Amino acid sequence: MKSYFKINCIKIKKKKIKVGDKSLSHRSIIYCLIKNCIIEISNILESLDILSTINLCKNIGIYMYGPINSYLLASSLKKKNMKNKISYIGNSGTTIRITLSLLIKNNFVIGDKSLNKRTMYRIIKPLTLIGYVLQCKKNFFTPIIIIKKNNFGLKYNLVNSSSQIKSCLLLSSLNSFFKIFLKEKKKTRDHTERFFPILKKKIKNFNIKIPNDFSSISFIISYNLINKNNFILNLGFNKLRNGFFEYLLNSNLKIFFIKKKIYKNEHFAKILFFKFFIKKNTIFSENISKMIDEIPILLLLLIKLKNKNKIYGLEELKFKESNRFLSMYYNIIFLGVKIIKKKNYLIFKSKNIHNNYVKSLSDHRLFMSFYIGNVYNVKISNPENILSSFPSFFNLFNNKKNNYYVYK
């Protein structure tokens, strides 16, 4: 006998949310650099980071039409002859890490002031082992110049859990006679591997529908859990990215799957969320790779729920848009939360939050996390950071109790 759930009895506010997955948006555009084809992409994320990837592809000679209303058409069947090989990619570390192995030689890649202070050692090292000749600033900072490209094959142990480095190396091997063997210490997101069977087909027209970004949806989930609302969401449901969701389930979050489907090897889900109370207090390092982008909002959610918590395995946060590990630690101290910092883990307990100033630097997730955390009368710097990953953020969260300011 089938069981049914009556949704009409629950008060739910209806609001259309279109926030394309950032990781899939980057990769969908980059596939034009691998294969001569036409790609139609719907529900693409129109953010600054994605625009950086689009501009990079345009500089290489790919025809791009859009993005318009979350739609983009890319064609690499006939490439332009481009004389300008200088590509400016803003603050998008994802763009440089994934595309570096696909760029033509004598290409010059430079970022903004923030990106130029982030080391690219973890991606430059394996590429030099393959046979690439690269020139960069001291400490492996950008700008980076590709002088020569070879591909000798490689057996490489991915000590750091980074899906971007893995994707870069895998994509470099697609049009090569040599094989690359990679060994992961921890499993990371597998969007690139899921699309490999489709890329190998002899088809020159692709239609890609991008699901809603789970990292962006996590802000909506946290906001509604804090305000004790029932809600329904459409989202991408990759098993290697839903660590935040798994943690909430283990903490007694009640959900109901309304719809599930698979499109182009990617999982889509429509879920009803209702009832939540925290139970689990420790997060172990083995689960961190599945929720690395959601750690800032998870910290603020746990602080809001006033529990004592321990989170291990946070060393990867040091290599994000800012040193997220230290940034979260110091900003949480400013709010009056008791917190202990060790080499790669945090222990904290929340009681009352003080009014203070939060410095989000150039990190979009820090700004959005403290904003969603409903920290009343706390001033947060750099609201323009949201443009890199979630441009419609303020349209969805019109909360008058939060104040945001721009500090130069």
From TrEMBL:
List the Gene3D superfamilies hit by this protein, alphabetically: Enolpyruvate transferase domain (3.65.10.10)
**Which SUPFAM superfamilies does this one have?**
EPT/RTPC-like
Pathway assignment: Metabolic intermediate biosynthesis; chorismate biosynthesis; chorismate from D-erythrose 4-phosphate and phosphoenolpyruvate: step 6/7
**Could you provide one GO biological process annotation from this protein's UniProt record?**
chorismate biosynthetic process
Does this entry carry the keyword Transferase? yes
Catalyzed reactions per annotation: 3-phosphoshikimate + phosphoenolpyruvate = 5-O-(1-carboxyvinyl)-3-phosphoshikimate + phosphate
Which residue windows are transmembrane per the record? none
Q: Provide the alphabetized UniProt keywords.
A: Amino-acid biosynthesis, Aromatic amino acid biosynthesis, Transferase
Molecular function terms, GO-annotated: 3-phosphoshikimate 1-carboxyvinyltransferase activity
Q: What is its EC number?
A: 2.5.1.19
The answer to whether keyword Transferase applies is: yes
* Top-rank taxon: Bacteria
Annotated Pfam families = EPSP_synthase (PF00275)
InterPro entries, per the entry: Enolpyruvate_Tfrase_dom (IPR001986), Enolpyruvate_Tfrase_sf (IPR036968), EPSP_synthase (IPR006264), RNA3'P_cycl/enolpyr_Trfase_a/b (IPR013792)
Q: Where is the Enolpyruvate transferase domain?
A: 19-395
Q: Which PANTHER family match?
A: AROM/DEHYDROQUINATE SYNTHASE, PENTAFUNCTIONAL AROM POLYPEPTIDE
UniProt lists the family membership as follows: Belongs to the EPSP synthase family.
- In Swiss-Prot or TrEMBL terms, this protein is called 3-phosphoshikimate 1-carboxyvinyltransferase
Organism annotation: Candidatus Carsonella ruddii (Diaphorina cf. continua)
Which gene holds the coding sequence for this protein?
Answer: aroA
